[in-house]
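Box 3.1. Reading complex inputs
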Amino acid sequence: MSPKKIDKAARERQILDAAAAVFARRGFRAATMDEVAAAAGVAKGTLYLSYSSKEDLFFALFAAFADEAMAAPPALPAGTAPDQVIGLLVEIGTRLDRDSLLVPLTLEFWSAAGVEATRARFADRYAAMLDAFRGALVGILRGGEARGEVRRGLPLDAIVSSLLATIDGLIVQAWVDRDLSIAETLRAALPPLLDGIRPAGSAAPPPR
Amino acid sequence: MSPKKIDKAARERQILDAAAAVFARRGFRAATMDEVAAAAGVAKGTLYLSYSSKEDLFFALFAAFADEAMAAPPALPAGTAPDQVIGLLVEIGTRLDRDSLLVPLTLEFWSAAGVEATRARFADRYAAMLDAFRGALVGILRGGEARGEVRRGLPLDAIVSSLLATIDGLIVQAWVDRDLSIAETLRAALPPLLDGIRPAGSAAPPPR
Amino acid sequence: MSPKKIDKAARERQILDAAAAVFARRGFRAATMDEVAAAAGVAKGTLYLSYSSKEDLFFALFAAFADEAMAAPPALPAGTAPDQVIGLLVEIGTRLDRDSLLVPLTLEFWSAAGVEATRARFADRYAAMLDAFRGALVGILRGGEARGEVRRGLPLDAIVSSLLATIDGLIVQAWVDRDLSIAETLRAALPPLLDGIRPAGSAAPPPR
Amino acid sequence: MSPKKIDKAARERQILDAAAAVFARRGFRAATMDEVAAAAGVAKGTLYLSYSSKEDLFFALFAAFADEAMAAPPALPAGTAPDQVIGLLVEIGTRLDRDSLLVPLTLEFWSAAGVEATRARFADRYAAMLDAFRGALVGILRGGEARGEVRRGLPLDAIVSSLLATIDGLIVQAWVDRDLSIAETLRAALPPLLDGIRPAGSAAPPPR
DNA sequence: CATGAATGAGGTTTCATTCAT
DNA sequence: AATGAATGAAACCTCATTCAT
């Protein structure tokens, strides 16, 4: 709240933005602190005032993205529970399509989660984020189940895991095939698939 | 038939196996050629007789995995087209569950495909593999469409892309949540979802 | 005037001096950056702050010697044009006799100019230095020609090239025969040879 | 004399020819035994049957050139002693102009003579060659002195050293300035300079 | 606080030499 | 004799981190 505090926050935002661009383009290991400092417009030593190591900076960047994703969830669209799920996933896809840094950074975050040296921190944080999303979607579908919008007795946990997985998988596909739009693919594929969890005879109307 | 040929191939297999283990554990960048050489039981220089650089070795490993995946496709299970698709995807999931190196290596391959320095080769190769799988699955579903096992007019390309993406996404989830079984998740989630592409009134019988 | 400027220059001089000693003793290729760093009393990485590669450092050293040779030409001695030429060449020889590093370094510079990898830069720079010396000496002799101190119609370019070549060749001889003094040899041999370009009947008085 | 002997000699000639080309282009240190073997059309191990190390091979090459230069001296031209000296030097220059490998190889030989690791062998061998040439030329001039073709009392040793040095220096100039012909330069410059050692009133007639 | 020069451990790659075939 | 696969010691260069200013 003091002016110092504000400056500090601004400085950190500035550094994180630069780090996002550099890590996205070069990867965590290939990126150098020199490049980050240059992109942020500060001296190399300054990076160490806020982050105690390169890995720390990368983790802070990851955490910032995760916080943002969980702090600003898309508004819940209207409609039946399956429609709401479709709407939410398409909205996430839209964000991914729009922010060109998000996709390569996500690949780097995954790599960090897969690699011995960084695995613990990154995997735990990522699992927490996944759980939050999973819980939210399962809650929506359970509500729909109660209202008769979703068939009873379905393995909702597995279904939600798979739907979230679909987005992650499309991130990879979008990266190797620059023409593929995550949101468009989801908008086309999800309605028929989610028809499968609606009660018989209640297929959604054709989109738009 | 010449002994040289056999030796050379055996030597390369030996190195690739060692590389798989090391790259899986440490990641491409963090892994050192010393570690790979030690794991393979050869001198460092020997690695360079077969592979002209560390990146070359890593790409060869990637290509070997991709070749293997495409060369030994699971046998096509019996049943309607949606059942066949489910069977194939579950089989792939089973393989991923079984081979503990496959998952972290896949994350590294993706990272290589995302990062400037290595992007071109890896992304192209990965896209080719995806295309092959996509083509095979779309073919199955089109056949089902012709036989009335699949509703007409569905966006089969988008659906197949999403289903393949689901597997990739589950790779990530399986890695951060070691209790999650890819095959189990698919076995539970796919049948209801694929009910959505069957003609009305032909939902699959409950699994098993 | 800024302290930085002074430090930087001093640091580079310190490194160049060390490099001169190491390259002279071991040759460009056999010398290691470790040796240079140790001789300069700095860490290896410090060398790369000022010079981007070993070759760069070696070229900087060469350029520094060339600059020095051209920036501090010996004072033009008194006498007729041939006497002036003799005086200049003997002075150069004296410098070569005095600075024990100059001779082996020169051999290394020539080698660098002869070898594919480094040829372009070194040969061009060396040619420029030669041209400057050649121009200066030809100018002196042409002046002497106008004043009647030099016979008319002589191939002054070829003569000057040969005289400069004599110094270079004596560098080699001095190196394999440590007793040979470049300056003494020139002081003895040049007067009779240059008598050959004086007008008939004007031979120089015996030296000293 | 046995067929083995002949084969061996041919094999060594083949290797030396290849080594000359490779060392001339790449320099002694940068050249690799692989390159030499490839150029010679033999396996790398074969090189070690005749030469115990890379340096040994290089020295053998040097020795072969030196032997050749001393074993096949140019025929002594007719004329006065100074004319004979001019003729000999121009002939050496002609050979240097003709054989494009001679010049860069000479620079490499000098470098080897200047560098700690190889100095002893190369410098001694080179000094011996120089002495032989020096002795031959001094002998010619002394003969001329006796016949009155050369002024008495001149420092013939220094003069001959300088004349030999001129050739060596022109090797360097020819290398950095590809248009310069050693023989042409000598043919133009030597006659006036050597006029300086003739008795007064006996200048050579204009060349040709 | 901010800087950026200095450090030096660490990594990739090369290549002379050996030796089993 | 001839081969060429294997070796492993070096060597160049990078870059995360520190710290005096």
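In summary: Chain D has two domains: 3-59, 73-195.
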